[in-house]
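Milestone M4 deliverable, item 7.
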Amino acid sequence: MLKEGDQLRIAAIDYDKYIKYDYIIGSEDILEISVWKSPDLSSIIMVRPDGMISLPLIGDIQANNRYAKDLKEEIGKKLLEYKQDPIVSVIVKEVNSQAVFVTGEVIRPGKYPLRSETTIIQAITLAGGFSQWADKDKIVVIRKSPLKPEGNRIVVRYSDIVSGKNMKANILLKAGDTIIVP
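Output delivered:
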């Protein structure tokens, strides 16, 4: 209980530094674009490999490498020619552009979308786990790097993670990472 004369310190947290509010749209993502009271202008659409989407009346718009809120604003501005005060929403329905690749001695090698923060162990689990011939202590993550065209190699020992010896080795994956299980 505070008494007269007590001082109370209040700290403000800048949540923008800690929370990702928006997602950057990429090729193959599925978007739901809605224009209020205009079902003919609303659609569910995939971002093409060239990063564009095509919409009725306004044609092609660059969607790749943009936030949904920025795309929404541009669509709204372009629709002003045809509709008074258009209310537009852009929702990312399906994330397909952010993916990792798991290959080698796993049950189901392949491309796996990053729908949330995903660790190495989680990605291997998505790939069905290790095959009976997997060398679990020589897992390699190849991560793209602007400084090294061949990418950075990160060697991970599964036994260190599951034993608790090195939990930091269960790193968060980034889009484009390739996990190789020899």
